[in-house]
Amino acid sequence: MTAFFIWARRFAAYRSLTELLARSSLARLAIISALPLAWIVLANIAPLVQMFVISFYQSYPLAAGTAPEFTIRHYFAFFERPLYLSAFARSFIFATLVTALTLLVMFPVAYYIAKVAPRIRRVRLLLLVIAPFWISEIIRSFAWMLMLSNRGAVNSFLSSVGYSGPPFELLYNNISLTIGVLYLTSLYMLLPLYSALEKIDDRLLEAAADLGATSFRRFTRIILPLARDGIVTGCTLVFLLVVGLYAMPVLLGGPSNTLFASTIGQIFGRAGDSWPLGSAFSMILIFAALAYVGVFMAVLQKQPGRRS
């Protein structure tokens, strides 16, 4: 009998909820979006807010029963050592170059999948590109370390085709770091580009060709303007991803190619009151990256031919 009453109460609550959802579209939207919004707040926004507050602490963690003392000296510490400034500048220069290189490499790939490949093969090609990203970044980094080492696949292949000189130093330098990061970010550039290119009406290209437009003119006057949204989205995603990379630069770049995110990780790993300093540097990196992307998007908004 007790189980029956419990079931009846649960059924009544379920029926009330379904009736509410059936009557109000606003209630449906609120319930559907509540869990994703809660996850975003708890997993992303709340840690950033906590880190922002900690960046103004004199020391952290706080001793039991003590009130926090606030200071801004951790932000000024960023300008006191050339090591921090050089790592910061290196991160932004490297992220900019990798973003441009990723765009140059992945645009032809996205165009081939979206416009050249038969429609029945497009999903297979996309799955072929996406499948390696089911593996974690760390494992893929180790795979590149094995391929680019002195006895790895690249040097072994060169030896098999007749090269008898010393092995090429492909690991722990800018070459390995650029290759690894380019591979890591390729998907984030490919998908926005594919989405934008796939929406371009083929009849526009056919009409331009019938009117005598060359391939280069069709590319610059039709394809690039219509794919601009995908380019902006892909470049933004890739830049923000690269500027905050930590694991892959440590594994593939070596100590001479340290990026600013790796410097922040080293600060957090130090003994003592290093959390406020690391938090301040993290905030500097976040705000600088957002400002950089904001300027980039503002410049593109002023370009002629921008679709509203």
What labels describe this entry?
308 residues; 14 helices; disordered N terminus; MetI-like
Structure description:
The protein contains 14 helices and no strands. With 308 residues, it is mostly helical. The chain has a single domain, classed as MetI-like fold (Orthogonal Bundle). Helix 2 packs across helix 14 (275-301) and helix 4 (82-116) crosses helix 8. It is globular, with a radius of gyration of 26 Å. The N and C termini lie far apart (65 Å).
At a glance:
By secondary structure, the chain is mainly α. The chain has 14 helices and no strands. It is found in: Cell membrane.
Strand content: under 5%
Number of continuous helical runs: 14
Give the C-alpha Rg. 26 Å
Order of helices and strands: HHHHHHHHHHHHHH
Overall, the morphology is globular
Average pLDDT figure: 85
Number of strands: 0
